[in-house]
Amino acid sequence: MKLVDTAIKRPVTVIVGAILLVLFGFISLYRIPIQLTPNVDLPEVSVETRWEGASPQEVEREIIDVQEEELKNLEGLDSMESESRDSYAYINLMFEIGTDPDDALLRVSKKLDQVKKYPADADKPLIKSGGRREQAIAWMVLKTGDGYQGILNQEFDFINDQVKPFLERIDNIASVNVYGGQERELTVTIDTEAMAARKITIPELLRALAVENRNVSAGSFDEGKRKYVTRTVGEFRDVTDVENVIIKRVNHIPVKIGDVAHVQIGYEKLDVVVRHEGSPTIVMNVVREPGSNVLVIMSRLKEVLKDLNDSILKDRKLMIRQVYDETRYIYSAIDLVRKNIFLGGILAVIVLILFLRNIASTFIVSLAIPISVIATFLIMTLLGRNINVVSLAGLSFAIGMVVDNSIVVFENIFRHREMGKSRAKAAYDGTVEVWGAVLASTLTTVAVFLPIVFVQEEAGQLFRDIAIAISSAVLLSLVVSITGIPTLSAKILGRVDTSSPKRRSRFSIKGLAGGFVNMITRFIYWMCGYVTARVMVVFVLTILSVSFSLGLIPKTEYLPQGNREMLFGVLIPPPGYNQDEMKRIAQEVEKDILPLINHEGDSETALKLNLPPLESFFFVAFGQQAFMGMMSKIQERTRELLPYIYGALRKIPGMIAVVQQPGLFARGIGKGRSIEVEITGPDLVQLIKLGRQVFGGAMQVLPGAQIRPIPSLDLGSPEMQIVPDRDRLTRLGMTTADLGTTVNVLVDGARAGGFRFLGEEIDLVVKTEENRISEIQDLSGLPVIAPSGEKVTLASVADIRLTEGPSQINHLHAQRAITIQIIPPAEIALETATQLVAEKVIDPLKSSGVLGNIYQIH
Length: 858
What we know:
- By secondary structure, the chain is an alpha+beta fold.
- The protein is built from 28 helices and 31 strands.
């Protein structure tokens, strides 16, 4: 074989080649991206549409339904889910694996362009590639320093405008999100008494602001060599411009905004509760771009945060504290796997020494380990892969496999050396004699793992790195075994003394091992003499192996959970809870959790309860749910906190609580090791009824499971419906639209455009004085101003009704849906839990006839 002959005759070339492989492997090791888990590329497009003031039913009817009608026939569409909430519509589109994300984004955009009509005051849909799968690599909170005199919630614009851009400039950061705080707004606070006296209606005031606050292009003209562009500039530049807007003339006297309203720069109403360790705060998170090196990003992020804390934040007596760092777990997990790799390599060398009983022989064979493993990083870099726990696990598996080929080749070379051949002749003959068997063995191993590389589904993408790592390492070990091993053997393998007791002891048939080998050898000789015996042995061994496998194989589980130092909790309150109530709930939760925190050392409460202390805790509530995160000081004991935290959340009446340690491969809260029962159908009442049956049934068959309905299993979200008296409105010279606009301003304020303030656009909002409505009865007495100046109450021109409606409406494949998310107890395997839910919860519903063509469970 020419390759073996060349390697033996040119040892310098072989050695240089091995050194170059190791060198470039080390260079690749320091350049290759490092992250926790492999990239999973799922073609996904999301569509967000805002429509301020709209109820979930209106959002569903006017936005979601018309968008889904256009999108449902998209080529390659795999699934479509949507949410309709107050003032907000969201659609998530999953495409078949292999779909070009840019092409999918373009096709979605074209389809949405075909939507004929949106509500007049709805925003343009925002289309983005990707969904909500990417998790933040860092969370930060804003804290006050000594001497701070401001209001922390009013620092949102400073953080958003001056701090956030510094973080977004860091290479490979995809997005920075800011939660909490109050944005600035230009507030026009109306005086209804003054407006009525001057016969000014609220719609007239809003129209005046809209038509005056604009720039209008007026074309262009030429004069000589020059072209002049003309514009009518009318946008408001300062508060005085707004105050001087003329609404109309009454008795030839101009009535200005300033005559009937107070104009000032203020802050919007706080609509989210964000707390860190018992104090209000503003929270930020950072999401990286897929495939980027999270360790490099985090190092740069910490540098930028330190610079910000020492400069602009210090000047305002503020500071940013990082409360979650994904790289801590990455370093821990990767360090553990690296230790296992080194330990595996050392143990492999020890085994070689025990059997080869020769330092030179052990050195020759064990060289296959570092060369094959380190050079694997070069191949992974060339293939565009990254280092993660999966790829490192593949290398751990490969440690024992890469020496197999070298042992086979070396043992045969050693045998030929025992026959009295020269070192070069023994190296050549010994390698050529077995290279075919070594090649077949290697290709067999590669054939097992290589198909995984071509699996495009999520599972294939997750385990692609382990297949590449093992296949690369084994193929490299083949090259080492037929080039490096004969080369070194031809140079440093000494004379073999066949009579040496040290050599004979490796094949000694004395003792227990020798007796066992002798027994097996005699049995094989006997079996080979009879065809019937051979057939029976094969048959019996096959039956036994299959039977033992079926009997001992464990129930299937989800991917390994890992052991992150973070816990996430979700609280779902009864419909209709406001932010004040959510703040009270946050304080109740903090009573049980904050005593576990001690930044200096161990918490006394944690010691008494025999629990690991917490490093930090934050709470965020918006809309109709709340989530919280907490960091354990002792990573290995994080899971011990789950029962205590879950118990603390369960103590709050009326709440549905879920607490989870995020899994290694999970994407989002509740994702990963969970069962999702999706119920679809047309009627919300019936869907909720079915959802409650599944919820209750799951609680019975899986005691201790954490169950979360998405959305709520309750239509009790309170809603005040104002039904206009059209006859009365007509006599007053008003329309239904006028009444709706008036109520909008009086209840919560209405956006009337934008205003440039310090170079940024803020909302221009028209509202009435604060605390006009503190209870339901106040709604009836709201003043409605007619064009004649007559001032009447809302109750005199409309019927006010208290009703209930959903706080959120979900769709699955363009049908209304409710999802019951079940997280089984740790002691019950996911497969077992799935079977129990299917057999004892879903099957009885099907057999009862409740489910059919209209209502389905997926």
